[in-house]
Structures are given as structure tokens and as C-alpha cells.
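ingest -> fold -> write
write: protein_1
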Amino acid sequence: TPTPTPTPTPTSSPTQGPAGPWAAGTAYAAGAQAIYNGVTYQCLQQHTALPGWEPPYVPALWRRQ
């Protein structure tokens, strides 16, 4: 008789923690949040932040929440 194969256990995807301060040199995933000057922004596309790429100055990367 065939041996049944184990059913994989579903795993939940990681949840994002609270938004932290925006920082140059940080790798941000799409959907991540960061706080800059007291305002929360949502990352629109994955990138590693560089100086001068602060959220209010790069609307292609960040959306104000």
C-alpha cells in the first residue's frame, strides 16, 4: 500500500513591525514603512536608501501615509 506523504504545515508570512526612523544605508522592501521628520511613509519599491533619497524628496520610492 502507498505511504501517505506528510501534508506541509502552512506558515504565516512575517508581519511588519512598527515603522522605524528612515535611515540612509537601510534596505527597504516594498510595503515597508519608515518615519521621517515625524511623518510615516510607505515604501513603493524595494531599494537601499541613499543620502538625498529622503522620503519627501523621492515620490517614486515613498508615499506619505
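write: protein_2
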Amino acid sequence: MTIAIYAASVALGTLCIVLFLVAVRRLLGRQEEIVATMLRRYDDRLAEFAQTLNDGLNRPQPTMALPVEEATRAIPEHGVMRLLELAKERMSADAAVAVVSAPSKEPMLATVGLSQAEVAQVGRMGVPDYRGARALQVAFNGEAATPPGSTPIRSGLAVPLLDAEDGQGMLAVLTRAPDRRFSEMDITTLEDVVSGTRPALEASLELREADPVPELDPLTELYDRRAFHALLDRELGRARGRREPLALIMLDIDRLTTINARVGHLAADDILVQIAALLRDVAGRDDLPCRIGGGRFGALLPRGDTREAERLFERLQATLRERPFPEVGVVTISAGATELLPSDDAAALLGRADAALGLAKVSGRDTVVAAARREAH
């Protein structure tokens, strides 16, 4: 009798535990269903909110007139860069960009106030589809490397740059301020800058000639070899047209093969990345540092001469001496500097810089050799 009672108690207890577990499981399942429903509703509301924002950005707005005489007078023959400077100033912005895409041509990209990584980010964005809107506000994720001492680009305001029959174009002003909001007045101001200067822009050589969007080297985020040659051709043409100087410096890391053998390719790549960052830091605002390949770099100095190229090398050399690498100690670099001469084409200018670099290597490395310095007038 006692055993039967005990067995019945155990069975009853087991049944209670099973029923409790079933109830808990049903409760958890119900909570999961509630959470899933809430998440679906949240996603639906988020999608609806995003669509509302998109519709609002693309809705045409009434036009407000502002005088354009001042903008028209401010644009001389070199239209594109002057336009960017004017737009940046009139809008109290941190940077400006113009993108033009015409049929059967590579896109033209011109910027002021942006780092190389930011230029590439904007170039990949291309010309937006306005769908009849007067302007678009653009948000950025802030991931692109910024100029020294600057915060990331946060947002921008873009308006059409050209008439539809002339190709697609965009003029945008960009801000690094996290809380900047563009107003109706801002849109009108930017439209006036464009409308007052469009005739000069369409006649500008800079706008009519294709200017390829430069690509970045994936390891160092400097301009790559292809971009270097495109930029060399472009800057040489600009220097000729404007009768301005142009300097070129070629740099090469000393004993890179030995460094690779000593620390391995991954660690050597990290050294390359750090040296590229230092080169970017010591370069001037308008300078164009590039990675040619391996441990070789080049930098174009618009409106610069050989002395300025030598000073760039000296800044990089001093920084490298102050910052030895844990794996290999102080890394040195050799360089050849030159400047544009009246008879030069791109091949002659580059060949002279490479020859000067070769002399620096055979002269003991860790030095710069200057070639073909112009006589001062």
C-alpha cells in the first residue's frame, strides 16, 4: 500500500513538472511571437519613414530668387575650380565637388577640401538621379579617411550642374558639421551660383575634357599607378595652360626586399601602410601622393618647384627617423625630384625623376637627388 502511494506521488510529481515545462515553453513561444510581431511592425514603420524621407527629398520646391550678378562676376576662365571655391564660400561649407558625366566619356571630377579617400568615395557615388527635384541632401557614413585635423564629411547638398542635353552633372557642397541642416535658402543660393556661371563652365576647357576619376591603391589608400599617370597628364596640361610650375618627386623605400625577408610580407605591408600615411601627412594640401607599386611612391606638386619637393622629402625623412618600427628599426627612403621644363612631356618629366632616384640609390640611399632645377628669374 505504501509503495503504491509512493509511486502515485512520484507519478503525480512528474506530471506536474511536465505540465510546468509545457506551460513555460508555451509562454516563451508566445513571447517570441510577440517580439517577432513587434520587430515586423518596427521594420514596416522604418520602411515607411524612409520612403517618406525619400519622397520629401525628391519633391520639387517653389523657387526663391536671389541676385546672381556677384556669382557671375566671380567666375573667370578657369571655371570649374573657381566655381567650387565660390560655392564653398557662399554656402559656408567645408568642401565642394563637381561631377560631370557625358555619353561616351569618362566622368570628370573636381573637388576642393577633400582627402584622397573622400574624393574616391564621392567619385564612386557619381551623379545622382534627381527625378525632377531641385536638389538632394546626401548623408555620408564618415568611414573615409579625412585630412589631418579634420572630422569626417557628414552631409551635403547637391544641385544639377548642366542642362540635360549637355550631359549629367552635379555641384555639391559638403559639411563636416554633424548638425548642419540645409534650408530652402541654401538650395536657392547654390542654384544661383550654378545658373550664373553655367555659360562660362560650358566653354571651359576643364569641363569639356574628360578627367578620369582617380582610383585608390587598396593597401595604402593613396592614388594607384593608373591614377598617377592620369594625374601626371592632367597636371602637366594644367601647368602648361596656366603657365604655372609643376614638381614631381619619386620615392622608394630602401632595402624593402631585406625587410620582407626579415619580417614577412604581412608585417612589411603594415610598414608600407604606415609610410604611406606619413607621406600623406607631410604632403601639402594640393599635393598628390601616389603609390606606384611595391615600395615606390610618387608625388605631384602643382604650382611647386624642385625645392618644395626636396622639402617634402626632408619632412618625411625626419618623421621616419623619429618613429622607428618595432620590427626593423628606422626605415629610410630615397628620392629623386625634378620640375617641369618647357620642352617636357610626361615621359621626359617622369624619366628625369626616375633617373634622379637611381642616383640617390647609388649615392648611399636615405637622400634626395634633384634634377633640372629651373633658374630663378
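write: annotation protein_2
The mean pLDDT is 77.
The longest strand covers residues 168-175.
pipeline exit 0
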